[in-house]
Amino acid sequence: MAVVQKWREGMSSDNVKGLVLALSSSLFIGASFIVKKKGLKKAGASGIRAGVGGYSYLLEPLWWAGMITMVVGEIANFAAYAFAPAILVTPLGALSIIISAVLAHIILRERLHTFGILGCILCVVGSTTIVLHAPQERQIESVTEVWDLATEPGFLFYTALVLTAVFILIYQFVPQYGQTHIMVYIGVCSLVGSISVMSVKALGIALKLTFSGTNQLVYPQTWAFTLVVITCVLTQMNYLNKALDTFNTAVVSPIYYVMFTSLTILASVIMFKDWDGQSPTQILTEMCGFVTILSGTFLLHKTKDMADEEECCSVTLSWFVNIFVNEIIKA
Q1: Separation of alpha carbons 150 and 187, rounded Å
Q2: End-to-end Cα spacing for the chain
């Protein structure tokens, strides 16, 4: 009870709003992975698969149902960034991994190992740790303040590195390794995603201030952030579809989460300086929470492999036992 009371006292109302919105977002997004995967499979059975450059899924109602579900989740996520720091909102995406893994087990028949359940528990524990020690949201009075943060040398350097890496992946690695190496598609999604989250947060702050009575739509910076959001989201959607159509959902979701979250936290720390007002103990605790989530996602990632390995070991053991028994009988 003392921990809960301390949490209530230490967490601002904006952070609480951001937390609720982030949790709602994870529920919708986690379910959308499964619905979209079903739609991609159905579309691929009668047309060109998305993984090899096809767009027949655009004519599939089930895929659109998944997309609408994801849009609802992203809207909730968008709103969450307007109220809470990225270091609080982004790691809560672990919930979407849990939901997608469980639904993939039930609906898509993608087996969830016992250790996968342990992974889900670790994700929840890590998320709770981060929520309890998250920094307070930075008070910003104008979108021009966000623009000043985005144009500081540190974040400009980060953006340049990201764009360089994305262009190399798209034009050098995607044609050759996109169908065989999962990190290619997910790398593009995650790198672009870290930039899109910063722009989403900027746009969310602008809209929040506008609805509060301080019109931010008159500033060109608001529209610049809007353009960046649209470009990044379309790029993410395209390459995430390719990853989902090519690889196992239970593998795509956790790897994408780990890369996307790690890069987003890095981008947020550089741009918004989330850790400036925190003690080393708080920062270390947040990182421990994040590592706990990574451990959970790793277990979820290994779930299918471990299940297959156990089945293989069981068959191999039975084979050796049968040979041994037959040799004894012959003797």
Answers
A1: 22
A2: 70
The sign one gets for the Cα dihedral 122, 191, 161, 176 is: positive
Give the C-alpha distances (Å, rounded to integers) separating 24 from 92, 137, 183, 314: 10, 19, 28, 41
Q: Which residue type occupies 291?
A: V
One-letter identity of residue 297 = T
Please give the C-alpha separations between residue 83 and each of 69, 192, 329, in angstroms, as whole numbers: 22, 22, 74
Please write the tens of the pLDDT for every residue from 266-287.
999 899 888 887 888 988 998 9
The whole-number pLDDT of residue 9 equals 53
pLDDT digits (tens, 9 = 90+) for 293-325: 888 877 776 665 554 454 444 433 343 445 444
Please give the Cα distance from 87 to 59 (Å, whole number).
37
Query: Is 251:304 a contact under the CB 8 Å cutoff?
Result: yes
3-state secondary structure the chain: CHHHHHHHHHCCHHHHHHHHHHHHHHHHHHHHHHHHHHHHHHHHHHCCCHHHCCCHHHHCHHHHHHHHHHHHHHHHHHHHHHHCCHHHHHHHHHHHHHHHHHHHHHCCCCCCCHHHHHHHHHHHHHHHHHHHHCCCCCCCCCHHHHHHHHCCHHHHHHHHHHHHHHHHHHHHHHHHHCCCCHHHHHHHHHHHHHHHHHHHHHHHHHHHHHHCCCCCCCCHHHHHHHHHHHHHHHHHHHHHHHHHHHCCHHHHHHHHHHHHHHHHHHHHHHHCCCCCCCCHHHHHHHHHHHHHHHHHHHHHHHHHHHHHHHHHHHHHHHHHHHHHHHHHHHC
In the block, residue with structure tokens 């080393």: 280
Burial, 210: exposed, middle or buried (Cβ in 10 Å; 0-12, 13-18, 19+)? middle
The residues, ordered by sequence, that sit 6+ positions from 221 with a Cβ below 8 Å of its Cβ are 143, 144, 146, 147, 202
**Is the pLDDT at 232 greater than 90, yes or no?**
yes
Give the Cα separation of 119 and 112 in Å (integer): 10
Question: What pLDDT shows up at residue 321?
Answer: 42
